[in-house]
Design goal:
The structure is a single chain. The chain has twelve helices and 22 strands. With 525 residues, it is α+β, with helices and mostly antiparallel strands. A five-stranded mixed sheet has the order 1-6-13-2-14. Strands 17-18-19 form a three-stranded antiparallel sheet. A two-stranded parallel ribbon has the order 3-15. Strand 17 and strand 18 form a beta hairpin.
Length: 525
């Protein structure tokens, strides 16, 4: 009998299982710290893993959860939950309620109270040899065309060096954060086991509590930002339920749980994954996702008069109310044109119950105004490309101009006095006001802290960056900060209670794949 690795790729459209097998089994193999790039860089040295990649379904990489460590990621893979949800927030942690510490080396690791949810070259050649022995054994048992196999890495180890780090250098390698100020993409705040202050360390660096506290200064390490390319984990799958010779886009490992439940033909427990987002990995997906039912439909805020009954403390001396407000009187054709232009993927659904809101349509944008929050739930607009291919310039914003929206009752509108008399809050528009300068309504504002545009400031506990950026050119750090806090579309939906892309023209499974695209796969240009 030839070794399995010497056989040709087999199209297992019909599984070959023993007659007493009611369901195809699933074998999950996790390889600690195996980087995704190894399947390309060292493919000739790992022929078994390379064949699994070429014959089965694989991805360029799989994103681990934060922190990119062993226990949090193993448990996320088998529960579909983020570490803040399943409770294993680190390999070593303290629970203030239990008044106990958890580590991989003490007896607490076997205590179920910690677990929430339902549950290099020579080294990788050794791993490949073991996987080869496994595949040969499955072939001898005539199970190699019956069993479904998933090979993953829980996280990746990056080469680390230790240096004496401080908070006073512009090129520092650490950034301390209060846990509520960590990027929301980490999903690393809602657990009492997460410390109040967290220090993020750049890849290739280590952080020690005091000089000499680290026991090693070489080799690999993990736990870094899970967007870091050095943290990208491997994903390979092979078996009759997986597509043949297919490479898919990267995805997050919390999506694996629903996939494994589909393979095992069982119903998944509630989890943080989006069921159906990995349907494209399977020959015949058993689950068809359904669109959620909207919990609150928009009401009406009709234009009944052109002059405001209450100015709400707002004024616009440079422009008159009647002429401007007459532009809100859109014909049916203009309403249709505005919706076609500014709601390209359909109107976002509101999944919050008893939300009292209405749609406010203008030629330049559309918003859903909340009568409870006194601000828009969302605003949608299309920015047109300037003629000639240049960026061009928008009209200047009219100074000291803010007007009451005549479509809203006075008790359903924010007053300009709220901002004029406050020293700690100001406002920002939820659409480019220069797109349609005449629509400077208080109903288009969002409340923000005063001085928000000034930039990061020093504080007693440094919780964002621990060096002052306020005297630097914004172009040097604003874009970095925005990328650091990027999120998946799915995360935005969870935070806002909205559902996007309902009329994208794609299947819901494909829409879920787009919504759950990991932030590590969104590349900066």
């Amino acid at each position: 009998m030839t070794a399995w690795v010497q056989d040709q790729c087999t199209n297992m459209s019909s599984p070959q299982c023993p007659p007493n097998f009611k369901r195809q089994p699933l074998l999950l193999i996790s390889l600690d710290g195996l980087r995704a790039e190894y399947q390309h860089t060292w493919h000739s040295l790992i022929p078994v893993l390379d064949k699994l990649r070429k014959c089965g379904t694989s991805s360029a990489f799989m994103q681990p959860v934060f922190p990119s460590k062993t226990f949090p990621n193993h448990y996320s893979i088998v529960t579909g939950l983020y570490s803040e949800s399943h409770g294993l927030v680190d390999n070593n942690m303290y629970d203030p309620v239990f008044d106990a510490s958890f580590s991989l080396s003490n007896a607490e690791k076997d205590n179920p109270r910690w677990y929430l949810g339902q549950p290099l070259i020579s080294a990788i050649q050794g791993v490949d040899t073991v996987i080869g022995q496994l595949m040969n054994g499955l072939k001898q048992l005539n199970l190699h065309e019956c069993i479904n196999i998933i090979v993953v890495a829980d996280h990746v180890d990056a080469e680390g060096l230790v240096n004496n780090l401080t908070c006073k250098r512009p090129d520092q390698k650490i950034k301390p954060y209060l846990k509520q100020h960590l990027p929301k993409r980490f999903h690393y705040a809602h657990s009492r086991r997460i410390e109040d202050v967290n220090v993020l360390v750049e890849s290739l660096w280590l952080f020690e509590r005091y000089p000499g506290s680290l026991r090693f200064c070489s080799g690999g390490n993990h736990g870094y930002d899970n967007d870091d390319p050095n943290m990208q984990a491997m994903f390979l799958s092979y078996g009759p339920k997986f597509n043949l010779q297919t490479e898919v886009e990267p995805f997050s490992n919390i999506e694996l749980y629903n996939l494994m439940c589909d393979i095992l033909e069982i119903t998944p427990a509630p989890n943080n994954g989006s069921h159906g987002s990995l349907n494209h990995l399977l020959r015949t997906p058993p689950y068809t996702p359904q669109s959620p039912v909207e919990q609150s439909v928009p009401g009406q805020c009709p234009l009944t008069h052109l002059e405001p009954t209450d100015q709400l403390g707002c004024s616009c001396p440079a422009m008159g109310d009647v002429n401007l407000n007459s532009q809100l009187n859109l014909s049916d054709t203009e309403v249709s044109q505005s919706e076609s232009k500014h709601l390209l993927f359909g109107r976002p659904l509101v999944l919050q119950s008893e939300s009292d809101y209405c749609l406010l349509l203008q030629r330049g944008f559309i918003s859903a105004y909340s009568k409870h929050l006194l601000m828009p739930l969302w605003s949608s607009f299309t920015v047109e490309k300037q003629s000639g291919g240049g960026s061009g310039s928008l009209p200047a914003l009219i100074p000291d101009c803010l007007r009451a929206d005549v479509r809203l009752q006075a008790d359903q509108s924010p007053t300009c006095n709220n901002y004029n008399n406050s020293t700690n809050i100001t406002y920002a528009f939820l659409y480019p006001p220069t797109q349609q300068a005449c629509i400077l309504f208080s109903s288009t504002l969002a409340e923000i802290p005063a001085g928000f545009q000034v930039g990061p400031k020093q504080s007693e506990i440094p919780n964002r960056r621990c060096f002052d950026l306020s005297n630097q050119d914004e172009s040097k750090w604003v874009e970095d900060l925005l990328w650091f806090h990027q999120s998946r579309v799915r995360d935005i939906e969870w935070i806002t209670g909205l559902e996007f892309f309902e009329k994208s023209g794609q299947t819901l499974a494909d829409v879920l794949r787009i919504k759950t695209q990991p932030t590590a796969a969104i590349y900066r240009k």
